[in-house]
Amino acid sequence: MKKDWLVGFLVWMFILGIQVVYGAESKVLAEVGPYKLYEEEVEKILNQDPQVQEILKSSPEAKEKIKKTLIDKWITLSLLGLAAKEEGIDKLPEVQRDLINIEKQILAQRYLKTKLEGIKITEEELKDYYQKHKDRYVEPEAVELKHILLSLPSDAKKEEADKVLKRANQIRAQILKGAKFEELAKTYSDDPNSKGKGGSLGVIKRGETDPQFEAKIFSLKPGEVSHPMRSNYGYHLIKVEKKIPAKALTFEQAKKLVENDLREEKEEALMKELIEKLSQKYSPKVY
Questions:
Q1: Surface-to-core class of residue 256, CB atoms within 10 Å of its CB (0-12 exposed, 13-18 middle, 19+ buried)
Q2: For residue 29, how far is the Cα from the chain centroid?
């Protein structure tokens, strides 16, 4: 039922919002009176819509069912639309306003798309932008670390939490006396993804984990083992293997980021210029 409800809204989306350029060989999947549903419209939803992609990720076999549902819903909508026209509903003032707004949205999107596609960026512009904003393009500081997790429900009672905390402190004491962190991780850790690797979590960069947790991790010295740290998963003992300092990205490493940032700035500047010119031409009024 949830999927059918979602697909129903997707039909509205591609009828009102998605714009597809049809070639001479465009395949018609369905036809109702003057309305035609083209394969490109359905394929665009199947291949690009995040909600559909989420469904297909967990249930790839659902693709044909979703496609059929889209077509069926489109036919239903088209039949209702024809019936509405036959009864003159399209001539009602409130419906006319809605149709004007839909037309305006589609035209505005196409106009803006055409203008933005005209933006060109040269290699020289990219290099100049990179030089002026080098401080933006930095690989953040990182740490390579291992952990031992003693799991504990987030809503655990104090007695249970104290018991797990005591175990964590006992394990830490063994490490401080010379026991190998990696062996104790294999024995005691409740993290199935890392315990077989001696607790290794690999490299974590600044900004990739909870800020409060991050502050504690990055305050540790290489080889140092933290006191037990509580999270939603339980208590952690963290060992920092090494610290990786922040480093500036070269132009080639940052090129894609530079292009995205410069394009965004150019788009914003173009939008501002367009709105100023169009406002002078059409003199909008607010009452």
A1: exposed
A2: 31
Is 246 in contact with 139 (CB distance < 8 Å)? yes
pTM of the model: 0.63
Could you count the other beta carbons within 10 Å of the beta carbon of residue 141?
Answer: 14
Q: How far are the Cα atoms of 31, 34, 51, 75 from residue 69, in angstroms, in the given order?
A: 15, 21, 15, 10
| φ, ψ (nearest 5 deg) of residue 38 | -95, 150
The enclosing H or E element of 146 equals: strand 142-151
Q: Which of 202, 208, 201, 200 has the alpha carbon at shortest distance from 140?
A: 208
199-249 tens-digit pLDDT:
999 999 998 988 878 989 999 999 999 999 998 899 999 999 999 999 999
**Are 151 and 190 in contact, with CB atoms under 8 Å apart?**
yes
